[in-house]
Design brief:
It contains five helices and no strands. It is mainly alpha-helical. The chain has one domain: Tetracycline Repressor, domain 2. The longest helix is centred in the N-terminal third of the chain and has 29 residues. The protein is globular and about 45 Å long. 23% of the residues are buried.
Length: 126
């Protein structure tokens, strides 16, 4: 679900819960596609460009969420917007979903709850 289509929240914790739910939903479908494109990216410049576009688009989405979180309240001490974008970009990587849900057998609900907690830990003031 595109960031602009998600429910706007006035509370940062609700935004993180919503982002974790959206990431889980998206990555349940996107993980195999991302892995296929990642593997094929070494085979030619056209596929490599598709891979780079996917990475850039994920980063743009992460930036939109971080900017919204930052507008609602301060980021965790020692974290600036760029670092927070980096962290969220990694947390939203379909490979993370693939590793924990598809390979290790976590349920979507367990992954979503874990992801939401990690997002709060990494981004929000204690």
């Amino acid at each position: 679900m595109p960031v602009h289509g998600r429910r706007e929240s006035g509370r940062v914790d609700e935004l993180d819960d919503g982002e974790a739910a959206a990431a889980t939903r998206i990555n349940s479908r996107a993980a195999p596609i991302f892995e296929t494109v990642r593997r094929a990216a070494d085979q030619g410049p056209e596929v490599a460009e598709v891979w780079e576009t996917l990475l850039r688009n994920r980063r743009i989405g992460a930036r939109m969420v971080v900017e919204r979180v930052n507008a609602l309240g301060p980021l965790r001490q020692g974290s600036d917007v760029e670092r927070a974008v980096d962290v969220l970009w990694v947390f939203n990587d379909p490979a993370l979903y693939d590793a924990l849900v598809r390979r290790r057998g976590w349920t979507d609900d367990a992954f979503r709850a874990w992801l939401s907690e990690r997002m709060r830990d990494a981004l929000l003031v204690e």
